[in-house]
Write a structure and sequence with these properties.
Elements (H helix, E strand, L loop, with lengths): L7 E2 L5 E2 L3 E3 L15 H12 L4 E8 L19 H12 L4 E7 L7 H4 L4 E2 L9 E2 L2 H20 L4 E6 L4 H6 L14 H4 L1 H14 L4 E6 L8 H14 L4 E5 L19 H4 L7 E5 L5 H9 L4 E4 L9 H7 L12 H6 L4 H10 L7
Parallel strand pairs: 3-12, 4-5, 5-8, 6-7, 8-9, 9-10, 10-11, 11-12
Antiparallel strand pairs: 1-2
């Protein structure tokens, strides 16, 4: 348990003061134009004050056509800078590293929300999306880089590139959804090119001391475990990122592909030679026992999502009491309001996890 409260240095030189990272939880609390609301700032600042070593925003879309859900934070316009500056300042005032997750929904952008046909690596009749032209792929890469630059201008310590959950970068990584015949399609190395070009651009324009992470799906959504592992290997070998965040859904699960079963999904990533790059995971991490399991298996840090909703100060509670037990679910709306969740956030939770809230 003591390791949970050890500091952790990243290759860029930034240091998180414990092994707790706030997962990038969708919360639908931003304004219609993507500007931060006071409710969202409060939700995030409370987690920083509560002891999280890294406080990460929800996915922030880098282009208005990449919006994935209502009430989503934006990082595609300078109009977003005042709120982002305020948020970065308030997070860092509590000695927490401030990180923006940058994102584009691709064919998962609802047409009724963006007012246009969504885009994807290749045309998709199923999702009603058109394929990006070659110059539009270049623009997409620039959108991600510009979003990172804007986050740095606002005072954030770094960004995480959302390449998971079948959003646009994950769509490029998948042979199922990426059927391009140019340099961005075909073999895995080509399908990874968008991600690696974004990483190179961010590193070049934000500097060596800027914290840079990537979130990957290890399977599902058209992603095969073998290819996810190969992508992770390539990221580690390139040595341009600071951390990899594996969105595992459940840290105890085995792979869905039968030929890889018999061991945990996460073990395939923990065993890789990652050098100084840090490795974390999310997926039903709720109890202190879950956290210790992750670190015992070789992860460097954990990402808490649902566990952070009823416990804004989870790290402090555990540090002060080794016998701390998280609250049993469900919990009341009134309790969660006191933990910094607005009515919009609560309504979203009811739709996603109806058994989370009792009344």
């Amino acid at each position: 348990m003591n390791k949970v409260f050890d500091s952790l240095a990243f290759p860029c030189g930034r240091v998180m003061n414990n092994r707790f990272m706030l997962a990038p939880l969708t919360n639908t609390q931003s304004k219609v134009d993507g500007r931060l609301s006071e409710a969202e700032i409060r939700w995030l600042e409370m987690r920083a004050e509560g002891g999280f070593g890294v406080t990460m925003t929800a996915a922030a879309h880098v282009n208005s056509l990449g919006q994935g859900f209502a009430g989503q934070l934006g990082v595609f316009s300078d109009a977003h800078l005042p709120g982002l500056r305020d948020l970065a300042r308030r997070i860092k005032a509590h000695a927490s590293l401030a990180v923006v997750q940058i994102h584009h929904a691709g064919f998962r952008a609802p047409r009724e929300l963006i007012g246009d046909m969504p885009v994807a690596p290749s045309p998709s009749e199923k999702f009603g999306a058109r394929g990006l032209e070659h110059d539009e792929v270049q623009s997409l890469i620039e959108d991600f880089i510009s979003g990172a630059v804007r986050a740095k201008q606002a005072g954030f310590d770094g960004v995480e590139i959302h390449a998971a959950h079948n959003y646009i970068i994950g769509q490029f990584l998948s042979a199922e959804f990426n059927r391009r015949t140019d340099e961005y399609g075909g073999p895995l190395a080509n399908r990874c090119k968008v991600l690696f070009d974004i990483i190179k651009g961010i590193r070049a324009r934000c500097g060596a001391d800027f914290l840079l992470g990537v979130r990957l799906s290890p399977e599902r959504h058209g992603i095969l475990l073998e290819e996810a592992v190969s992508t992770a290997k390539a990221l580690f070998a390139a040595k341009e990122i600071d951390f990899l965040d594996v969105s595992a859904w459940n840290i105890y699960k085995e792979p869905i592909e039968e030929r890889f079963q018999g061991r945990s999904l996460l073990s395939y990533f923990v065993e890789l030679n990652r050098g100084e790059i840090r490795l974390g995971a999310a997926g039903k991490i709720y109890s202190p026992e879950d956290i210790c399991h992750c670190l015992d298996q070789g992860l460097d840090f954990v990402l808490l999502g649902r566990a952070a909703m009823p416990h804004h100060n989870y790290p402090q509670l555990l540090r002060d009491d080794a016998a701390f037990k998280p609250k049993h679910i469900p919990v009341s709306r009134a309790y969660l309001r006191d933990e910094g969740l607005s009515e919009k956030f609560l309504d979203y939770i009811v739709g996603m996890w109806p058994d989370f809230i009792s009344s």
